[in-house]
Amino acid sequence: MARVGSFTLVVLFLSVLIGCKKQSSSTPAPVGESKARKDDPAVIQKGLIGTWTVPSFELNGKKTDAVNTMFFTFDDKTLTAKWKPQPGETKHFDSTDRLTVTIDADGFLSRTYSYTLSSAGNDVGIDLSFTNDAKEVIVLKGIVAGEGDFFRLCHGRLPGVPRPTAFVTKEGDEMLLLNLKRHKP
User: pTM for the whole thing?
Assistant: First the structure.
């Protein structure tokens, strides 16, 4: 009977030990160690900081390659968009936004936006703001997603265009979809 008792104790001890291991593997990670959520504006903002190339974009349903002609630089509050001018162009006037953009010292046209991120359903919303020549604040509403070296940004090209609900463009919708790839000089 002593042997059965010892055996029973060993089996009981092992089952308790195995049960503890199973329980500890399903225990949630401590606060601050949980997996980052891709729909969290703070996570997206941290991931966006840096300089990006725009290998391609879509406008009104039409895809265009833009390799090495467009760059976006995000810091924690601003986005600076830079693009190569058309041959012979010394400044650019966007009649829609009523904003004159001049060529910078690097030979690029550039525009700086302030931006804010927020939750927008299943996506992260982005509001891009700038002041035009008439001192009017223009806000373009969009969504942004991604991680690592690849992000997508889709926004209305015109003021007043509603925030998109998907990363697609269609003819006549005045949506701009930018595919961003982290710039590695």
Answer: 0.73
